Input
Amino acid sequence: MCAHTETLLTGPRGNMEEERAFLSSKLCLRDSQVEVLLSRTALEWKETGKSRKRSPGASPTAHGHTVQMCEIVAVRMTRDDDDDEGDDPTQLRKQRKKPKQRTQQQQQQHPYSFTVSYVRRTRQHQWRCSDVTFHCTSQALCEQWVRVANEQLSSLMTERANHARDHLKTDANLHKYDGVVCVGGDGMFSEILHGLVTRAQTDHGVDQNRPDAELVPCSLRIGIIPAGSTDCICFATSGTNDPITSALHIIVGDSQPMDVCSVHHNNVFLKYSVSLLGYGFYGDVLADSERKRWLGPARYDLSGVKTFLSHNHYEGTVSFLPAEDNMGNPRDKLQCRSGCRVCQHKQSKDKLGEMPEEKETSAKDGWNEIYGKFIAINAASMSCACPRSPKGLSPSAHLADGTTDLILVRKCSRLDFFRHLLRHTSKADQFDHSFVEVHRVRKFHFQPKFQELISLENQSGPPEGSEDDPTHSPQTTYYGSARSSWNCDGEILHHAAIQVNVQCQLIKLFARGIEEQQQQQQQHVFEEPCTVLDLEPSTD
Output
């Protein structure tokens, strides 16, 4: 039998001691003695006897197990008769097994306990919640562990999406919130995005109608619990559209910066985009599907086949400002992952106050111009991956590097275009065609061949009643035969001639980017939660 001892440190005494334990207790795991350590960054428990099975999700070390503090969901007092399903603050326990029942003697000797809930990783980037429960003879010791552990945890987002959205529509003080959470698909995310970005610009007096305006980043983070048809935003930022994983990212307070594209027409703001701007094929698919909403999600498949068979192409001029050479290129196979060096490099440059390259030159210097007939013009600010297209439209696009990947698909045969589309579902390079070119850009403009005439009254500002709908179309007259629409994150823009600027790291998500597969495999999955006992000193 072993006695527990405890040590509470008053603070760090230098760089070598910053990671020392705030609290240390000698406990026992079943019949084996263990030592539990709580530091600023991690909770560790070490077995001093023979090694036994480790807790699910805990990282194995040379002599024990470690859970990072940033991945601890909650620390709370518990009782043996607590209902495991109802006592879970995250309500995510349905898929976990209950620990083995303790004997009556163990319950009498150790009536006090506290439970640590933390993240464990399963397969395919999915997260689940797991527990480790410590039992003690002293209520004071349990309370001390709960108090000290909770002091080290980050603040948790507890507000729900509908309540936060109501506040966005009024003059409510948003400083009291850490973020806005929405349950829905990419369309719901777009509504929250526009509300927060518009509110931030209004509070700081920034005119959104100016294409060259330097927008103010949002201070609130956005959380998405996916419940849509594609959930592209979740899939591209966490590697899965699993709602439990998204909820845990919100609870642990992750933060992932993201670029936002501002879209204008004749110095009038239209909309923000974070994933796809598509003209031609993807615009036609969306426009046709909107007329078949009664079909539900099946309308996208039907409209896709119809648009493919139509095989339309559109003439116009694309002008773009390329990104610097050190930002990489869309075909370098360097995918954006958690802790991406490209995005972090961009963030560190901005903190140092370095001016973007395009601001050091005149407005016309460095711009490229391409005229042609295009089946599709796409701008991907992220990979745009989804379950149907695991690689996405641009596999090497980055979330927060201040660029978007401009993909131009020139007029080609229907068979060649089908081959291009088919490669979105395989590992082949979808850009490896003579009729496809891709550029990493900071800005781009598109001018269709037809002329677009708008009255002077409508040119002076947004149309009346368009405040809540930036895509509202004024009375417009078009000259020319064929025209398409822009698909802007799943919504139609009624203007074909647009100017697009990438606003670097304008928003932040409750996410951390897609983790590498080896990071997932380092965390072993074990079926049974762990119960650790603090044993009394032997009286022998």
User: Anything to note?
Assistant: The first helix runs from residue 104 to 109. The radius of gyration is 27 Å.
